[in-house]
Write a structure and sequence with these properties.
By secondary structure, this protein is of the alpha+beta class. The protein contains 3 helices and 10 strands, in the order E-E-E-E-E-E-H-E-H-H-E-E-E.
C-alpha cells in the first residue's frame, strides 16, 4: 500500500469534507472541500490542484481519444482533461497555478501483457502526459501502469491523494 500523508486542512475537520464516488466517464471540480474516491484499472484519473486557491478536481476516463465522431464524452481522455481544465478555470483557477497527479493505466488483463507495453493503459497515460505538457501543467506525482487496479481518494482542497493497489 502506498499512502501520501494527508494533514487536516486548517479549520476543516475530515468529517466536514463532502464525499463523492467518481464512476468511469465522470469528472468533478470543487471549490469546497471534497474527498473523491474512484477505482482504476486501465482507466486513468487526472487530478488537478490549484496551489494558489486550494481548489481541485479530477476525472476518470476509459479511452484516450475521441475522434470527433458521435457524442463527445468525458469517457475519452482528450475530452475529460479539457473539460476538467475548463471547469477549474470557471472556479477561478489559472492554468499556470495548476499541478497534476496521475493514477491508473494498469494492464489488468493477463493476455494483453503478452503483446508488449502498448496496451490501453499505456495509451491512456501517454495521452494524459501529452495534454498536460501541452498546457504547461507539471506532473507532481504519479502512480501509473503495472498490473493491478487501484483505489484512489483525492482531496480537492489539499491536492493530496491516497492510493492503494487492488489484489
Amino acid at each position: 500500500m502506498r499512502c501520501e500523508t494527508v494533514p487536516a486542512a486548517a479549520g476543516i475537520a475530515l468529517s466536514e469534507r463532502a464525499s463523492f464516488y467518481l464512476h468511469a466517464g465522470q469528472l468533478l471540480a470543487s471549490a469546497t472541500p471534497a474527498a473523491v474516491t474512484t477505482i482504476l484499472g486501465s482507466c486513468v484519473a487526472v487530478c488537478l490542484w490549484d496551489r494558489r486557491l486550494s481548489i481541485g478536481g479530477l476525472n476518470h476516463y476509459l479511452l484516450p481519444h475521441w475522434a470527433g465522431e458521435g457524442h463527445s464524452s468525458p469517457r475519452f481522455g482528450n475530452v475529460a482533461i479539457e473539460l476538467l481544465l475548463r471547469q477549474l478555470q470557471e472556479l477561478g483557477c489559472q492554468t499556470r497555478s495548476l499541478e497534476a497527479k496521475l493514477f491508473g493505466g494498469a494492464c489488468v488483463i493477463g493476455s494483453f501483457r503478452q503483446n508488449g507495453g502498448d496496451h490501453l493503459g499505456t495509451k491512456n497515460v501517454e495521452l494524459a502526459r501529452r495534454v498536460l505538457a501541452g498546457h504547461g501543467i507539471p506532473v507532481a506525482a504519479q502512480d501509473v501502469l503495472g498490473h493491478k487496479g487501484r483505489k484512489l481518494i483525492f482531496h480537492t482542497d489539499q491536492g493530496t491523494a491516497w492510493v492503494r493497489d487492488l489484489a
